[in-house]
Amino acid sequence: MADLRLKGLRKSYGSAEVIRGVDIDIEDGEFVVFVGPSGCGKSTLLRMIAGLEDITSGTLEIGGKRVNDAQPKERGVAMVFQSYAIFPHMSVRENMAFGLTIAGASKAEKEQKVAEAARILQMEHLLDRRPSQLSGGQRQRVAIGRAITRNPSVFLFDEPLSNLDAALRMDMRMEIGKLHSQLDTTMIYVTHDQVEAMTLADKIVVLKDGEVMQIGSPMELYHNPANLFVAGFLGAPSMNFLQVDVLDVQGEEAKVSNPSLEPIVVKTAGRPIEAGHKATLGVRPQHLRVSETGQLHGNVTLAERLGSETVADLRLDDGSKLIAAFAEDKILDVGQRLSLDFDSDAAHLFPVDG
Amino acid sequence: MNPALLGLLTIVIGVGGCVGYFYFSNVFLDKVLFPASGPNASRNINRANKIRPWLFLAPALLALGLYLAYPVFETLRLSFLERLPGGRTQFVGFDNYTRMFAEPKFMEALRNNMLWLIVVPAGSTAFGLLAAQLTDRISWGSVAKSLIFMPMAISFVGAAVIFKLVYETRPEDAQQIGVLNALWLRFDGGIGSFIFLKIVPAILLLGFAAALAWIVWVTIRKIREPRLASGLKIVFALLALLMAYIAVSSVLNAGSVLTAELDYGTPMTWLTIPFWNNFFLMIVLVWIQTGFAMVILSAALRGIPEETIEAAIIDGANPFQIFFSIKVPQIMSTIVVVWTTITIATLKVFDIVFAMTNGQWETQVLANYMYDKLFRANDWGVGSASAMIIMLLVTPILVWNVYNARKEMR
Asked: Could you tell me the CA-to-CA distances from B108 to B237, B274, B378 in Å, in that order?
């Protein structure tokens, strides 16, 4: 049980700075997901918290104590790796008890904690197996079990599901969610998969190039993205961005248009939008509807019918591309002309540079 | 002709001959014997493909048969014969063997070989593992690695000559050219001598005994585990007993080291000190084989998944625990292969003993004993018998080595 405070955390390898001043507050018992494209520094940040990487500058506090220079074991963290990292020469039982063995725990205590972790993960029948006899999902369970037996104050997960196949990934995702509600411990989870981020997190931290783009609850980030990057990163298919001309700005509202979009008034949400300049209008594919009186006009270039929804690629009149997702099974012909309508409240207007 | 030119010519003819054999025999098979054309083209191709491996293996099989397989049987035959005057021979059964086992020099060679067998593979593997682990951690590791590996390039005889110079003895009033004696004469019986020649060795011996005692304890714990096969239990118990014996004698030796009267100021003839001179010879082989062990083990250490080590770090393991309970178990199969490979090299050791002491002063080993009998005493019978004994000792280790190496490759 512990809260974490990351204050101005930086990490550089020589002259290359990979983490550029990260500030994050993580409350006790919170499930925080670090998400971002590969190379954004999310894993490095996690490894800095774990103590596997040095902190170049800034402070890291766990449970109110500065732990910048503390050894990993003194930080009270347990980590689950993408490649499981279970010890091939030990049985599942020995693997799960490893941390306790190192700490010099008694046999009875080891037995009891391993049994407890095995019960939580429903893997009592696997305890005497060797890692080579386990499937990928079972190995990941062992890795999680090894973390649980140590009774850490913070769990760290480094892309734990990336090596599993799609069906198993969904199962394990739910298991991890369940585990969090059962243990009620602070968990930090790194992933590049936005579905994992959206479903598991109490709080998502979106990272790009070693900087925090936005921190907030999944729905906050989804409905009110702070910038173009977050808007484009969360949601599938990703948000459409239209280059528009700002015709007029009235207080918190701006009137925008482009050759394929009839003039429409959208909220500026306090962003610096100026009349006479260009801006980027973001509309989620799910917010588009087919309508006789729609403001957007274009032709269908591809239609994917998924049963529960239909995803259409369109080429707009000004040559730009647009993706629309209709929550129904819709028959669309390639080349068909569509007029689309959207709720101006659900649209986001960003300055051109984000 | 200049010998260098002659050597070059030999290489050209040898390599050219090999290439020529493979190329022309292949052409003959494909174009003349079973041409891939005409009415039987497909049958011919199949036949040619069946014959090809044998065609290519033939020179090697012939050479190995002639120089390895045949001598084994011939040696076995000779070991049962006795030469009579006039070039005749007589079958004498196991007489040669019984005669040999009755000889104290043979028993000495057997005992020394056992000593070599324990010390050299263990020493080389341990030092190699240590060097592999340490050189991976330092910036000038690759330089250190090349230096440690370099003795591998020196022939056994060359290494023996180098160490003979290290152990060289000159009269008391002359300049000592041997490093060991030069060092030895530095000690004058003062406090420094007491620390370096009594306290330090005694501590080392006690530490060695403690390490052995710990291993014995671990082994005993292992034996008491119910799931171990009973055959293995007996082997483990015997090993534990042996180690316990060595541990106890090391403790006793530590005591005698402390009380020993040392002959300060007199140059020592190191290679004539019975029993200990064996170790002076072993150092040469350890020096050579450490490089080999280091290279193989360093590659194995690098093959260990980094995450398992990081996981252990997070779980609170210290560097020693990481090394002994995470790294070493993961490369155990490689360690076994290295160990057995060095064991085989050790069993066959001949050059070092031959060049340094020639088996005098109780340093005889089996291979040198065989050479003595076969080529100096011209006693074919006993010489062949000792050769058979060496082969008998090597074979099980060799089989195990090949088995482990194959397991490693899978």
From this structure: 26, 11, 20
- DSSP states of B14-46: HHHHHHHHHHHHHHIIIIIIS-S-STTHHHHHH
Q: Could you tell me if B373 and B113 are in contact, meaning their C-beta atoms sit under 8 angstroms apart?
A: no
For chain A, domains (ranges, CATH) are 4-233 (3.40.50.300), 240-351 (2.40.50.140)
| Centroid of chain to Cα B353 | 13
Q: Which residues of A touch B313 (CB under 8 A)?
A: 51-52, 72-73
Nearest CB among B305, B313, B315 relative to A52 is that of: B313
Q: Does A145 touch chain B (CB under 8 A)?
A: no
Q: With beta carbons under 8 A apart, name residues in chain B contacting A103.
A: 316
B3: preceding bond cis by omega (within 30 degrees): no
Q: Is B263 on the interface with A (CB under 8 A)?
A: no
Tens of pLDDT along chain A (354 residues) come to 688 899 988 999 888 888 888 899 999 989 999 998 888 888 899 999 988 888 999 999 998 889 888 888 888 899 998 888 888 888 888 888 888 888 888 888 888 989 988 888 888 888 888 888 888 888 888 888 888 888 888 999 998 888 888 888 888 888 889 889 988 899 999 998 888 889 899 999 999 998 899 999 999 999 889 888 999 888 888 899 988 888 888 888 888 888 888 888 888 877 888 888 888 989 999 988 888 888 888 889 998 888 888 899 988 888 888 899 988 888 888 888 888 888 888 888 888 876
Angle between helices B380-409 and B104-135 (to 10 degrees): 20
Stretch 300-359 of chain B: residues touching chain A, C-beta under 8 Å: 305, 307-308, 310-317, 321, 326, 329-330, 332
Which residues of chain A from 59 to 98 reach within 8 Å of chain B, CB to CB?
Answer: 71-73, 77-79, 81-90, 98
Choose among A51, A109, A50, A54: nearest CA to A80.
A50
Query: Are A73 and B326 in contact (CB < 8 Å)?
Result: no
Chain B: residue nearest A151 by CA?
Answer: B315
CB-nearest to A83 from B307, B312, B332 is: B307
Query: Does the structure's ipTM exceed the value 0.90?
Result: no
- The Cα–Cα gap between B386 and B29 comes to 46
CB of A146 within 8 Å of a chain B CB? The answer is yes
Whether residue A72 and residue B311 make contact (CB cut-off 8 A), yes or no, is no
Count other Cβ atoms within 10 Å, centred on residue A34: 27
